[in-house]
Design goal:
- The protein is of the alpha/beta class and about 400 residues long.
- It is about 40% helix and about 15% strand.
- The chain has 14 helices and 14 strands.
- A seven-stranded mixed β-sheet has the order 2-10-9-8-5-3-4, sandwiched between helices. It has a five-stranded mixed β-sheet with strand order 1-13-14-12-11. Strands 6-7 form a two-stranded antiparallel sheet.
- Strand 13 and strand 14 form a beta hairpin.
- Helix 10 packs across helix 11.
- The chain is globular and about 60 Å long.
- Bound molecules: pyridoxal-5'-phosphate (PLP).
- The site of pyridoxal-5'-phosphate (PLP) has 12 residues, from helix 4.
- The site of pyridoxal-5'-phosphate has 12 residues, from helix 4.
């Protein structure tokens, strides 16, 4: 290493090329960045107040609305990660002290709830739900029916809970809520779903949805994309929650002209344009079915290993991430570290109560069967090295069967 240059183990790992060949990145975000997107982002700086800048921004905002299946003009692009999107949703539509309802059976739901509390909102949680369960439409509806005073102003929904690998049934939740006549807004965290799983903002009647760029969109973290319903847009005007950087009013006013209220991350905008082009070229329906197909192979591999996934209801198993329960007594943290050091394979760890009890394979973004077969084969080797006697090839063969069946 060059003297005077600060290094950590991770930069040494990547910069000094300890491992030949490609790194195997299988965390559920950030995901692999396709070369096309890297090239698109490799740009000189330019004037974001120039007369030409709206030629980039206006079509990009229209394509972003299409990604959400939301109306044009109802989306905003903030320089932030997904966490910033949580703040956009809350502070632009609610009033300080308002109550939000949170089905909470995963790390991202828990973090969104604590963000809401720190911003001065009251959070009512269903926190007796086992991790691995999906939010219950009936229970949400039952709670809203009881709320005759309409104190609950919004329901926070994580579309795809990345910690447990569980996908919520958003249309069923909307249907159940509509039947109650309650007017709470439905907020959706789509960070690990939008761009990989089916999502229909307007058709499903969702009010505010957000995503980040480092998962299905195959970009670095750096932009928070947020979509609003007409009702949520109207709430922006009456909301009195304190907001500054994330104020939608300034953003919408500038966006309408093809500009931003402050300096945007220009390489990220070019990267987003390329990402949305790639998704459009493949066709969103094909992107969604590719994720479903890859996920089926991963779940078949887990069954082939004789292990369980965290998700309880097979119908709700995520097509972007699989959380795999490890056998009792197995040192999961050591296994993950060994996979990284020995095989250059990055796996997700268990989060919250799943720490040490599970690992996660991300299967979203720029991926195909061959890449996943590498990961599944390496998982087998790293598990065997770590003392779990599974049959070599059991998961790989099961995935191959899943992918070669008609
Ligand atoms: C990754 C993720 C986030 C976190 O977003 P950041 O971009 O890290 O701020 C939020 N919600 C879900 C469901 C996620 O998967």
């Amino acid at each position: 290493m060059t003297p005077g240059i600060v290094s950590t183990n991770i930069t040494a790992h990547f910069d000094e090329r300890i491992m030949p060949g490609r790194h195997h990145l299988f965390v559920p975000g950030p995901t692999n960045i396709p070369d096309r997107i890297l090239r698109a982002m490799h740009r000189a700086s330019e004037d974001h107040r120039s007369v030409a800048f709206p030629d980039l921004v206006s079509p990009l905002l229209a394509a972003t609305a299409e990604l959400f299946r939301a109306a044009p003009g109802h989306v905003a692009v903030f320089t932030a990660s997904g966490t910033g999107g949580w703040e956009v949703a809350l502070t632009n539509t609610l009033n300080a002290g308002d109550t939000v309802l949170l089905p909470c059976a995963g790390q991202f739901a828990a973090l969104w709830g604590s963000t809401a509390e720190r911003l001065g909102f009251r959070v009512e949680r269903f926190d007796d739900v086992a991790w691995g369960e999906a939010p219950s439409p009936e229970r949400i509806a039952a709670r809203l029916s009881e709320d005759r005073a309409k104190a609950i102003r919004a329901v926070l929904l994580v579309h795809n809970e990345t910690s447990t690998g569980v996908t919520a049934d958003l249309p069923a939740i909307r249907k159940a809520v509509a039947a109650t006549g309650h007017d709470a807004l439905l907020f959706v965290d789509g960070v690990s779903s939008i761009g990989s799983l089916r999502y229909r903002h307007d058709e499903w009647g969702m009010d505010v949805a957000l995503t980040g760029t480092q998962k299905g969109l195959m970009l670095p973290a750096g932009l928070a994309l947020v979509a609003f319903s007409p009702r949520a847009l109207a709430a922006i005007e009456s909301s009195r929650a304190p907001r500054a950087y994330f104020d939608m009013r300034a953003m919408l006013a500038q966006n309408a002209q093809g500009y931003f209220p402050y300096t945007p991350s220009i390489p990220m905008l070019y990267g987003l344009r390329e990402s949305l082009s790639m998704l459009a070229e493949e066709g969103m329906a094909n992107v969604i079915s590719r994720h479903a197909r890859l996920a089926r192979g991963v779940r078949a591999a887990v069954a082939g290993w004789g292990l369980d996934i965290c998700c309880r209801d097979p119908q709700r198993a995520s097509n972007t991430v699989t959380t795999i329960m490890t056998p009792p007594g197995f040192d999961t943290a050591r296994f993950i570290a060994h996979a990284f050091r020995r095989y250059d394979l990055a796996l997700g760890g268990g989060l919250g109560p799943l720490a040490g009890k599970a690992f996660r394979i991300g299967h979203l973004g720029d991926l195909n069967e061959g890449m996943l077969l590498s990961a599944l084969g390496l998982v087998e080797m790293a598990m065997i090295d770590s003392g779990h006697a599974l049959t070599r090839g059991s998961g790989v063969a099961a995935a191959q069967v899943a992918w070669t069946e008609a």
